Each structure stands twice: as C-alpha cells, then as structure tokens.
Amino acid sequence: MMRSWSISNVNARVRAKMSKESQSLLTAYYATCLSVTSAQVIQIMLRGRTNMMGYLREPEKTESAITEDGWILSGDVGYIDDQGYIYINGRIKELIITAGGENIPPNHIEALIKNELPCISNAVAVGDHRKYITVLLTFKTYIDPDTGYPLDELLPETIEWLQGLDLHYTHLSQMLHISLPDTLQDFDVNSVNIQLDEKLQKALEEGIERSNLNAISNAQKVQYFRVLPHDFSIPTGEFGNQRHEEHNDCDNNILIFYSIHIGPTLKIRRNIVHQKYAQIIDSMYKQ
Predict the structure, then answer these.
(1) Are 11 and 52 in contact (CB under 8 A)?
(2) CA nearest 178: which of 196, 166, 160?
(3) What is the CA radius of gyration of the chain?
(4) In this structure, which long-range contacts are made by residues 263-271, counting pairs with CB atoms below 8 Å and at least 24 apart in sequence?
(5) Digits of tens for pLDDT over the chain (287 positions)?
(6) Residues near 57 by Cβ (< 8 Å), separated by ≥ 6?
(7) Which stretches does DSSP call E strand in 92-204?
(8) Is the CA virtual torsion 179, 184, 114, 119 positive or negative?
(9) Would you call 282 exposed, middle or buried from its count of C-beta atoms within 10 A (0-12, 13-18, 19+)?
(10) CA nearest 140: which of 270, 227, 234, 53?
(11) Cα separation of 30 and 93, whole Å?
(12) For residues 135 and 124, what is the distance between their CA atoms, to the nearest angstrom?
C-alpha cells in the first residue's frame, strides 16, 4: 500500500513511500523548500513549472498563496531528514501555541497515542495558550448506519484490547460506569461522571507514557488525559461535513464550470471540540 500527497494548486506527481509511525514520508520530482514562517514552525513550499499561475481574478488570494519568487505555500508543517525525504506532521492552522510560545503540531501527538493504544478511535491534543499538553480520548464503538450517531456497543478490537487487561466489557457505558440515553441528540456530555477501573486507568496512562517517549520535545509530552462518553461523529458535531457546490463563471468569453461534491471529511472540528468539552478540558488544568 502506498501513501500519496497532493496539493490542488500544483499539477505534478509526487512519489510516495511507506509511512513511518503514521507520518507521511514523501519525496517529490520537483524542487522542494522548507520555510521557517515563525519560531519552530517549518512550512513545506513547492516550486516548479507545474505550479499554478494564481487564482482567477483573486489577486489577494493569489498573493497569500504564492511568494514573490514563485514558491507555493502548502500550509503543511513538516521537515526533511538527512536522506531528503519530507515528513508531514500537521497543518499550520491546527498548530497549538503553548503559553511558553512553543508551536506544536497536534497530529503528531495524536498519532503516537493511537499507535500505542489500538482501542482509541480519536485523540485530540489540547494546549493552546496553556502551560502543558493534555488530550481527550474516545474509544472505538459501532456507528449507527442510519443516523450516523455513535452507539454504545464496543468494536471487536476494543473488546479484545480490554480482554488483554482481564476486563470483559462489551458496552462503553459499562466500561465507563455511566448511563447513556438511547439517542445522543440532546445528550449533555457534562451530565455524567466517568469512572475508570484501576486496570484501565493504568493501561491508558502507560500508553500515554510510551507515546511520550517519542515526543519531539518535553513541551509536546502529554501530562493529563480524559476519556469522553462517546465517540466522535458528524451528528454530534465533532466531525466536519462539506457541502455540494456548482459554479458557472462566464467573463471575457471564457466559460468556467467546476463542481465540488465532497462527502463527510471526518476531519476533527477542533474549535467545536474545544467548546463542547470545555468543562472537561478545564478540569485537566486545575490539577
């Protein structure tokens, strides 16, 4: 299986190799540059004959996307190793800026945790303008195919992981010692008091500690975590969903037609997560 990397304003092939530790490992056929956009932030830039000339009749947008000497700003954060391979580990707009001023890509932290804890469906690193990094965790459960809401029943890989701890739960509510309603439509995430078995708490702590061993810096090590009462989904608001758009643009005898039809992106809406789970997040900074 191969990983590929693409950017819509560059019409060129990018050769992809197998990823290491859930990071994209790439090398391109054209010139690649790393730009230090601010302290500790490395942005990947691309330049070549296959780059676009700019956005049609949008000079301000073009200026923000292309430098004066022709480099396209990808918006991706990464680095190049000593063999010339590019590692992508996040997006600039998703960077966490700690109270100490360090810029941290959350994707790298989250991937390390999920690699150590196969029972975890989603991990969200938090720490913007905070003194340290914390993380929100959700366990893998089934999703209702009709409504899209996460269900209470645990997925087989979660059950198998729990059995390795000599825990034999089959439902999330049992494991967290809470009661969940039949539908999560009006569910208040702050209305339940989650209690973890000692074995489960210890296993999660050890997984976090193992992931911290691969942290790029001490500032990127997770200090505390919380388990959430359900997995993420589009209906519960944590995942994004893009709309269908069609445009006709006729000007100066030029006819342009383009259509955007992208389904659920399943990208975490971090601002929504921060708002929805603010009370739970704040509890990790009062310890």
Answers:
(1) yes
(2) 196
(3) 22
(4) 264/234, 264/239, 264/240, 265/239, 265/240, 265/241, 266/239, 266/240, 267/239, 267/240, 268/122, 268/124, 268/232, 268/238, 268/239, 268/240, 269/237, 269/238, 269/239, 269/240, 270/94, 270/106, 270/124
(5) 445 555 666 655 444 333 344 344 443 333 345 554 444 457 788 888 888 889 999 999 999 888 888 888 887 877 777 777 777 767 788 888 899 888 888 988 999 999 999 999 999 999 999 999 999 999 999 999 999 999 999 999 999 999 999 999 999 999 999 999 988 988 999 999 999 999 999 999 999 999 999 998 899 999 999 999 999 999 999 998 654 444 445 444 444 444 344 445 678 999 999 999 999 999 999 97
(6) 251
(7) 96-97, 103-104, 120-126, 133-139, 141-143, 150-154
(8) positive
(9) exposed
(10) 227
(11) 25
(12) 5
* Strands of the chain, DSSP E: 14-20, 23-28, 32-38, 41-46, 72-80, 86-91, 96-97, 103-104, 120-126, 133-139, 141-143, 150-154, 222-227, 239-241, 244-251, 254-261, 264-268
